[in-house]
Structures are given as structure tokens and as C-alpha cells.
Backbone:
């Protein structure tokens, strides 16, 4: 955990209600780690996974969806504005064992997978991504993922790619991999857990503190109670007890 | 002139009056990764029950104007694990005695937990949580009924080898009545306030945000309420009062002490800024300088004397 003051470099809408926020002055954080952003006038910080990290410029990118007052207020962040951030939170993905990774993302859960994909590519891995979006208008990072490797797409309404969800793709396509890395809505992760147990999932949760003090985000696992913010947000999928 | 920040609590000298409040600091050692926690006056540990508890389902926390809601529901590993594992871990990074906060659902549970503490030298006192609003089976019920509260405090005093600090709920009509009742039952001190019961509703789903619907409101917004109760209780009792509720800076610590607090707990602020307690301790001598205060212990309850 590092408490840092970052500067807004960019804050733009990239798809319906989805914004890209680029911050400078950020320490390195690993793929899957997250940050807690202080939004003026709001008490609790807002947690976001890193979408990208540019080591050369100390630029950290996140993508956020406007879902309530806090994220709406974030759309007002102006270039040059100083932001109070707790950085380098959580554990991040374990990249040490995979020889043939598969990335599976749903909705805004695709965000941390982009940074992960870049890191895996850097390590010499072939990148295969299965990405599920609500509809064509809410697609983002398509071009970026395509540049890194093979991409399978699903949309709930069929406006792009396969009509359905990522599971529909995984069950029909014969994709070769040894370990998957997933992030998405709870219903998707639960379905994934009954489909295959050899993977890691990054969980989303509302949080109080983001660094293990308040127990606001505790989940049940096969190894006892774990805090999404501290022992996670990345867990082995077979350890998570999905409610 | 050097500023004297020392205060006394139950005969022990604390280097300063700042104590992270129960439930906002875990079992303390986690914060040692961020700074040397030996600067803290003491630490109030996460509320502990007889057996391990998961607590309430998610969502357990929610943002609010000037504060937050929480309904953790006393998640903790149980008293034996706290005594045998958590306290030794804390001892490695914190050399001072700490406050063990205990919760329960029945007389028997509270009594059993208090007995197991024994004379453990790492423990300064027991903080009896009779004010947790987030546990279905009870907790707060003891803090809302002065007869139940007195009876419980009396029973705990019989078995406890440590001073008993009773943590009161603000969710009562007459806080002074409660304070006097627990003092008469033998309480060695009173800490207040716990959280105020509140709730929020999700505008999109029309459902309460928190899984168990209601939750405890804490944070900067409750400071004036807490200060008022500390003031009233100090006036009514002859045992030390530990003040807490929305404290976020050194000036508010001083305000709490002027109202009557012998020590001051910092809660929600630790969750928003992990360095909050440390920063408040560093600001204290500067705030004292500005207000021309030489010794903190001399200002306890001063607002009642001027």
C-alpha cells in the first residue's frame, strides 16, 4: 500500500457511461492489483483495478463505469487535478505457473485483463481472450486486445460476436490453455467455477478501507474467511465459495 | 516548551491519548506495515466473541455524507485465537498494553470471554461492547436497557482481572442514565459513542443497500453528537470517560478532552487514511502550541470548569 498524490492526465468517455482515467505520478503496481481513489465530497474511497501501467511515464490508467454519485463525480475530474490515491493494494494475479494462459472477461471485468494481457505478452506468452460485453455500444479495448492476440467476443444482445455470454464461447470453441484468468460479474464467475476449476479470478467488491482493516469485503473460501482487498482480489477459483 | 501529551488510564500512563477504535484497526499488526505503530497511545482490538464469526452477508459497508455505514456483524476468529495467535503477532510490533474489545449474545458468552482473558499483561483493559447495532441476536440490547447493562457489568466485574471499560450506544433516549447505571454496577470507565443506527436505500433497486438493512453510522458527521454525550457523561460520573465519534484531527481530540475525555479513540478516519492516527499524534503538539496548552492531562473536562 502506498498513499500517493496523482495528477489527472486524461479523463474521457470511451463508450456509453465508461470513462478512461489516466493518472500520472503512480508507483508500479502488478496486474490485478488495485487502487482506492478519494472522490471529493464522498467519504469512502472508490476501488478500481489498473487497466494499464506505463512504467516510462509513471502513468496508471483505469476504466470506470458511472454507476452512482461517486463515479458521476469522477467524470468531473479535470486534467491537472491532484487526486488522493491509495495505490498498490491487493495481491494481483500469479503469473508464475501458466505456460498457456486464457483470459476471460465480462463487462468492466475486462479492465484488469488488458494490463494482464500486456504483461503476459511481454513474458512471451501467446494471448487468447474471451470477452463478453452487454452490447456493441459498450465494447471497449477491442482493438487493443486484437493487437495482442486472438479475441473471441460475445454480447448479450448479439450486436457483436456471439449472442450470449463467455460461457457460450468456452463451451463451443475448442480453446487450448492450461490456466485461465478471469474477471467479471459474480454470476459469470460462479458459472465459470462449475465449468472449470483451473483458474484465477479477480473479485469485485464494495470496500470500506481497501487495506484489510474493516472486514467490509470478507468472503467465504474453502480456506476460511478472506478479505477481497487484502488476501485478494485475485483468488484461485476453486477456493471461492460462491453464494 | 515541550508539550506534555501523556494521559493516565486505569493507572497506566499512555504516551498520548490517541487510541485507534475497535473495528477500524483489526488486531493492529496489519498497520505496522505502514508505520511504526508504537507511536499510538494504545490500540482497541477488533471486537472478539467466544467463537469464530463470519458476520453479516455482504453488503456490509456503504458511503454516506460525512461518514459511512457498516454492518460487519462482529467478524472475528474467536477469543482463543485472539489470545493465542493475534496478540502474540501484535506483541512483535507493538510494545504497549492494548484494549481487548469483547462482544457477545448472552450473559454466559460475555462472562466466558472475559474469564479467558485472565491477567494477560498485554491487556490494559477489557472494553465491553454492549452497543454493537449489527448483531441480530443481541449486543446492543444490553446497551439499550439499563437493568440488563448493570447486571452484565456486575457479572463481568466478578470474573475480570482487568479494568472494565463499558462502551455505550448512542441509540438511547438518556445517555446519562445508562452511564450512571454501569458506573453503579462497577464499571471502571466508560467509552462512547458507538455508531448511530442508520440505513440507505439503493435508488435503482429500491432495496436497502446493507444486507441486514440497518447499520451503524460513523465518521465526521457524528462528532457533535459524540462530543455532546461525552460532555454529559463526564458531568454525571466519577470514572474515566474515553471519547470517540467522528474525530479526524488534533483539534477535535482537544475538543473531546475539554468535554471530559481522558483518552480519545479514532475510528472511521483510519479506514479513509491508514496514517490518520499517526498524523493526529504528530499534529497534537502543534495544536497544543496554537492553543497555548502545555499539558493534555490538565485540560480533561476543562469546559466544565470555566
Residues:
Amino acid at each position: 500500500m502506498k498513499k500517493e498524490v496523482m495528477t489527472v492526465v486524461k479523463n474521457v468517455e470511451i463508450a456509453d457511461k465508461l470513462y478512461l482515467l489516466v493518472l500520472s505520478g503512480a508507483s508500479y503496481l502488478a496486474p490485478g492489483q488495485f487502487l482506492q481513489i478519494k472522490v471529493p465530497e464522498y467519504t469512502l474511497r472508490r476501488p478500481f483495478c489498473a487497466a494499464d501501467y506505463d512504467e516510462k511515464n509513471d502513468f496508471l490508467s483505469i476504466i470506470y463505469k458511472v454507476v452512482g454519485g461517486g463515479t458521476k463525480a469522477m467524470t468531473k475530474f479535470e486534467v491537472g487535478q491532484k487526486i488522493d490515491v491509495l495505490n498498490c493494494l491487493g495481491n494481483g494475479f500469479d503469473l508464475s505457473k501458466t505456460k498457456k494462459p486464457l483470459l476471460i472477461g465480462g463487462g468492466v471485468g475486462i479492465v484488469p485483463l488488458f494490463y494482464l494481457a500486456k504483461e503476459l505478452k511481454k513474458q512471451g506468452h501467446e494471448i487468447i481472450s474471451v470477452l463478453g460485453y452487454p452490447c456493441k455500444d459498450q465494447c471497449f479495448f477491442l482493438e487493443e486486445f486484437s493487437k495482442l492476440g486472438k479475441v473471441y467476443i460475445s454480447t448479450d444482445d448479439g450486436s457483436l460476436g456471439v449472442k450470449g455470454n463467455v460461457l457460450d464461447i468456452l463451451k463451443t470453441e475448442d480453446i487450448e490453455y492450461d490456466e485461465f484468468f478471469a474477471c467479471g460479474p459474480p454470476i459469470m464467475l460462479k458459472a465459470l467455477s462449475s465449468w472449470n476449476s483451473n483458474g484465477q479470478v479477480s473479485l469485485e467488491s464494495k470496500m470500506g478501507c481497501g487495506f484489510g482493516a474493516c472486514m467490509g469485503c470478507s468472503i467465504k473460501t474453502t480456506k476460511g474467511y478472506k478479505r477481497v482487498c487484502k488476501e485478494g482480489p485475485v483468488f484461485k477459483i476453486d477456493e471461492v465459495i460462491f453464494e | 516548551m515541550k508539550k506534555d501529551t501523556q494521559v493516565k488510564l486505569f493507572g497506566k500512563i499512555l504516551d498520548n491519548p490517541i487510541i485507534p477504535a475497535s473495528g477500524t484497526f483489526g488486531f493492529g499488526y496489519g498497520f505496522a506495515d505502514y508505520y511504526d505503530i508504537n507511536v499510538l497511545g494504545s490500540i482497541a482490538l477488533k471486537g472478539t466473541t467466544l467463537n469464530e464469526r463470519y458476520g453479516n452477508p455482504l453488503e456490509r459497508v456503504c458511503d454516506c455524507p460525512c461518514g459511512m455505514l457498516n454492518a460487519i456483524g462482529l467478524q472475528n476468529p474467536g477469543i482463543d485465537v485472539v489470545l493465542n495467535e493475534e496478540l502474540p503477532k501484535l506483541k512483535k510490533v507493538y510494545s504497549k498494553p492494548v484494549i481487548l474489545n469483547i462482544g457477545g449474545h448472552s450473559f454466559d458468552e460475555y462472562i466466558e470471554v472475559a474469564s479467558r482473558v485472565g491477567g494477560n499483561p498485554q491487556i490494559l483493559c477489557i472494553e465491553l461492547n454492549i452497543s454493537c447495532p449489527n448483531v441480530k441476536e443481541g449486543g446492543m440490547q444490553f446497551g439499550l436497557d439499563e437493568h440488563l447493562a448493570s447486571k452484565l457489568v456486575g457479572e463481568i466485574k466478578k470474573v475480570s482481572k482487568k479494568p472494565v471499560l463499558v462502551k455505550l450506544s448512542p441509540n438511547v433516549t438518556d445517555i446519562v442514565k445508562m452511564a450512571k447505571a454501569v458506573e453503579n454496577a462497577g464499571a471502571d470507565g466508560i467509552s462512547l459513542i458507538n455508531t448511530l443506527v442508520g440505513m440507505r436505500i439503493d435508488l435503482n433497486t429500491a432495496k436497502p443497500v446493507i444486507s441486514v438493512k440497518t447499520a451503524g453510522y460513523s465518521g465526521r458527521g457524528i462528532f457533535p453528537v459524540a462530543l455532546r454525550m461525552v460532555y454529559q457523561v463526564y458531568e454525571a460520573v466519577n470514572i474515566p470517560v474515553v471519547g470517540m465519534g467522528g474525530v479526524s484531527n488534533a483539534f477535535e481530540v482537544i475538543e473531546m478532552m475539554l468535554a471530559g475525555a481522558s483518552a480519545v479513540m479514532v475510528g472511521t478516519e483510519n479506514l479513509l487514511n491508514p496514517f490518520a492516527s499517526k498524523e493526529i499524534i504528530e499534529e497534537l503538539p502543534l495544536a497544543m502550541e496554537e492553543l497555548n496548552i502545555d499539558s493534555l492531562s490538565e485540560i480533561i473536562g476543562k469546559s466544565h470548569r470555566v
User: Anything to note?
Assistant: Chain A touches chain B through 27 residues (CB under 8 Å). Chain A has a mean pLDDT of 96. The first helix of chain A runs from residue 69 to 74. Residues 101-239 of chain A form a domain with the Rossmann fold fold (CATH 3.40.50.80).
